[in-house]
Amino acid sequence: MATDPIPRFPDGFLWGVSTSAHQIEGAAELRGPSVWDVFTAEPGRVKDGSTAAVACDHYHRYREDVALLADLGVDAYRFSVSWPRVDSPGGLDFYDRLVDALCAAGIRPVPTLFHWDLPAGLDWLERDTAARFAQYAARVADRLGDRVGTWITLNEPAEHTLLGHALGTHAPGRTLLFDALPVAHHQLLAHGLAVRALRAAGAGDIGIANSHGPAWAASGDPADRRAADFYDVLLNRLFADPLLTGRYPDGIGELMPGDVEADLEIVAEPLDWYGVNYYAPARVGAPRGVDTEWGGVPLPAELPFSVRRIEDRPLTDFGWPVVPEGLTELLTGFRDRYGDRLPPVMITENGCSYEGLDDQDRVTYLDGHVRALHRALRAGVDVRGYFVWSLLDNFEWAEGYARRFGLVHVDFATLERTPKASYGWFRDMLREQRGQRGHRLR
Ligand code: FCB
Fold first, then answer.
1. In 3-state terms, what secondary structure has residue 348?
2. Which of the chain's termini has less CB crowding within 10 Å, N or C?
3. Among 33, 24, 107, which Cα is nearest to 72's?
4. 175 phi and psi angles, rounded to 5 deg
5. Which backbone phi and psi does 299 adopt, to 5 degrees?
6. Are 284 and 226 in contact (CB under 8 A)?
7. 8 A C-beta contact, residue 208 and residue 191
């Protein structure tokens, strides 16, 4: 790890950590089921056979978790609101209490309205789900809007579409491949309708959290380049283009349902900021007629691209390559691609899975990525915030509890929380950023 201090970020830069409702809350019996509850109940769906019924029991232990956030010294906490909980009696009361506790600790609450836990019975293949989402967003804003100043509509609609509906490794477990595209469109429409609903409720400072990463062509061969471009369209442009330019990439709009032109006007409602979840780039080549793997997810041979290993890089315990400069490349590439249409950026997730309390590998990962972010800033990208994924070890979707992304270790037998070395590193880094002033920026 480099020993020179991390360069200073601008005053007002927002430092935070992220979590999501289904991954930490537990208290599943106090809410209606989501598609994830249905999915995990099916044998073989989650690798260790676990469920999120208890998870970190954050629902009951949120005060302890807010105290951890306060000790850490973050400016902001990104969590998600569970739609099925809000639909259940007393469900909004929990977020009321959480937001109050955060405000009392001087931490800015940054709720995400949808982080994959769709109420069971709803379906993103149905257009109507978008309108329902906007109604739900309005209800949450109505209750929390007096204390919440920053909102995120959706988390990673790309992964929810691809993993949940195209490849079937996430809930709801569909394997529609390209027939899953309406799921992308309806989520984008839901986002736009929710932005309008939030603004109508008086909310400002609205963003979205999209996962992005550079697509590196496996070679200079035109077939590999075409495959990498295709991957770039699917993972990066399919969501960013309509949001930022009001248009789908060439050839995509025709595949989408409904009055696409009219919908795109809603999708492209101006955003106050754009959230990027960054983990790693992908090396992409022409199809090889064999199944490949994307971050641990099996990819069928019939896709028009194949994902190759990134050699000569350390790998996290999840097998994801550690490539900090990919973050600089991604952000400068976005600035070049979207120009003035790109609002200020926040990194809404970045992190890694490693075992152990003395997690020096995580420290190295985070240190490298924070420096890479600063390079993007120096290159002129307007970056306003950085959120580590995640505060706590948690239910990592189809991987169950086997992947630990937390700055804080959770013993899932006792639910005891123990800060890791990376927690101390992040806390010290935040103190240094503030020039030892020792207080958080509000
Ligand atoms: C992201 C998800 C988040 C978590 C991290 C590791 O894709 O948004 O919930 O699973 O990956």
1. strand
2. C
3. 107
4. -125, 60
5. -110, 130
6. no
7. yes
How many beta carbons lie within 10 A of that of residue 289, not counting itself? 8
Ligand 1 centroid – CA 400 distance (Å): 12
- Structure tokens given for 270: 């101006």
CA angle centred on 346, ends 344 and 349, rounded to 5°: 160
Rounded to an integer, the average pLDDT of 284-289 is: 94
Question: In the chain, what are the domain boundaries?
Answer: 14-216+226-277+320-437
Using most ligand atoms within 8 A of CB, pick from 167, 396, 399, 407 the residue to mutate for ligand 1: 396
- Pairing between β-strand 108-114 and β-strand 76-80 as defined by DSSP bridges: parallel
The residue type of 248 is Y
Please report which confidence band the pLDDT of residue 290 belongs to, taking 50, 70 and 90 as the band edges.
Answer: confident
Position 436 scores a pLDDT of 54
Compute the distance between CA of residue 53 and CA of residue 31 in angstroms, rounded to an integer.
11
State which ligand 1 atom lies nearest to the alpha carbon of 396. Answer: 10
Please state, in angstroms and rounded to a whole number, the distance separating the CA atoms of residues 190 and 312: 41
Residue 167 above 80 pLDDT? yes
- Single out the residue of 302, 338, 299, 293 nearest to residue 320, CA to CA: 293
For the entire predicted model, the pTM comes to 0.97
Ligand 1, residues at Cβ distance < 6 Å: 20, 23, 155-156, 159, 211, 277, 349, 389, 396-397, 405
Phi/psi of residue 287, nearest 5 degrees: -60, 150
Q: What is the CA(230)–ligand 1 centre distance, in A?
A: 23
- Residues 183-201: tens digit of each pLDDT: 999 999 999 999 999 999 9
Average pLDDT, the chain: 96
Say how far apart CA 202 and CA 192 lie, in whole Å.
15
CB atoms closer than 10 angstroms to residue 204? 11
Please check whether residue 55 is in contact with residue 394, taking contact to mean a CB–CB distance below 8 angstroms: yes
Fold of 14-216+226-277+320-437: TIM Barrel (3.20.20)
The pLDDT assigned to 328 comes to 99
Q: What is the pLDDT of residues 315-333, one digit of tens each?
A: 999 999 999 999 999 999 9
Q: What is the pLDDT of residues 25-72, one digit of tens each?
A: 999 999 999 999 999 999 999 999 999 999 999 999 999 999 999 999
Query: Which residue's alpha carbon is at the smallest distance from atom 9 of ligand 1?
Result: 20
User: What is the reported pLDDT for 435?
Assistant: 85
Q: At what angle do helices 91-104 and 58-72 cross, to 10 degrees?
A: 20
